[in-house]
Amino acid sequence: MVGLQILVDGFAISTLYALGAIGFSLIFGVSGVLNLSHGGIMVIAAIAAWYLAGPLGLGQYAGSAGGVVIGALFALLTYALVVRPIQRSRAIPRDETEIFVLTGTLLWGIMLQEAIAYFFTDSPVTVRPLIGGVVDILGVRTPANEIFTAITCWVAMGLLWLFVNRTRAGKTLMAAAINPRGLTLLGYELGRVYLLVWTIYGVLAAIAGVLLATFLGTSSANVGVLTASAFSIVVLGGLGSISGSLLAAYVIGYLETATAYLVTPVLRTIPSLLLLVLVVYLRPQGLLGRR
After folding, report:
1. How many domains does the chain have?
2. pTM of the model
3. Distance CA 18, CA 27 (A)
4. In the chain, what's the furthest Cα-to-Cα distance?
5. Domain span at residue 153?
6. What is the CATH number of the domain that holds 266?
7. Could you list the mean pLDDT of each consecutive 10-residue stretch along the chain, which spans 291 residues?
8. 223, 112 Cβ separation under 8 angstroms
9. In-domain check, residue 227
10. Between the CA of residue 143 and those of 46, 147, 277, what are the distances in Å?
11. CB-based burial of residue 182 (10 Å sphere; 0-12 exposed, 13-18 middle, 19+ buried)?
């Protein structure tokens, strides 16, 4: 019975990890940016959903939708106020741009964390489940909202796959990831491409943040943890590899869930971190990375 519980709970949390990490991997693959304010954007979306649904009384559905919109807007603000000015600055040498972007997004994430704690709360908050009730799966009683969370994440990832593989704009994103210089020679403006990918990233990260708030709850203290989790998944799967991030999310999600059930929740992150160190040592490009 415990094994089945691990299977069910691990699937839900792994899918939630995957949705957050895929957006993180997408912007690195297309624009070469490792956004260390990722956790801040997720928590901003979650806190906005909680505040709109609870204190403002809009209800969990309108609150959740508003949280996704606000999270996506903060992703665009991250690009407009932090990333793009650094990339366009003439005072920063080209070979040092990446480290400045890393530092800038890290500081921006800390600012978001402190702003959430100051203006709202630093205590854990939850959004009411979007779907109530309990589902019985082969004798395992599971909240219906947990199943809804997993389905929603897979629908979002499926729509992303269709967009990337079946639309001209999506194929342009992939071309930018493979050869941005060649894309500019064809007359495309990279600024618009990057704006599109940051918009997609913001929506994915915001959906993951809101679903996290309905599933496990969140707080300003989770900003660093969520960023570290997404970074670990992306490195384990292979930087820029969306399929690798998906695989790594399930590996880490199930490792954490099994550790929480079979050992103790306090140590749930230790096995996944040990696995990350092992993979980085034996296969630096990650599970499905090409380089």
Report:
1. 1
2. 0.91
3. 14
4. 63
5. 2-282
6. 1.10.3470
7. 79 90 88 90 94 88 94 96 91 87 94 91 85 78 87 93 89 82 77 91 94 87 86 84 87 87 80 82 76 53
8. yes
9. yes
10. 20, 7, 34
11. exposed
